[in-house]
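Our consortium's second objective concerns turning raw sequence data into structural hypotheses that experimental partners can test. To show how far this objective has progressed, the report includes one record in full. It was chosen at random from the queue rather than selected for favorable results. The single chain below, 151 residues long, was entered without modification.
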Amino acid sequence: MNKTEQLIETPSDSIRTVDAPSSFDPRIDLAAAVELAGRTLAAVRPEQYDAPTPCEEFDVRRLSSHLVAVVRRISVIGRGEDPFSVPSFADEIADGAWAAAWVPGAREVAEVWADPGILGRQLRLPMGVLPGAAAAAVYTHELTVHTWDLA
């Protein structure tokens, strides 16, 4: 009987503790968030660039630029470098070129975060030092929220 079956078959008056799966890997969610953000950027049309987003300080143009900067920062953080070496916005990217700029950034994230050892390393984020597993969760959240804002 596996742990899921044990949990399901446990009577309510006799609750047993079931260990969390040791196979949880936050890089899977990070990769999904990177992929979804890239697809969402690719769907932005020129007539939407000046449109507002739920994130009041960003219109579509500014948020698109920020997303490209975020994907770059995720790689820098994974390499153990200074997160502030990447500006918060990719202002050098021309309007409409965000999706094209996303592709090499996403590829680099996949390469940098491929080593499972990254999850236990202490990484420097703008808000402080966290284990790689927590850093992956932080950036999964940031990408997910901003992708929702953009969509």
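The partners drew two points from this record. Confidence is low (pLDDT under 50) at residues 1-21. DSSP finds five helices and two strands in the chain. Both points have been shared with the crystallography group to help prioritize constructs.
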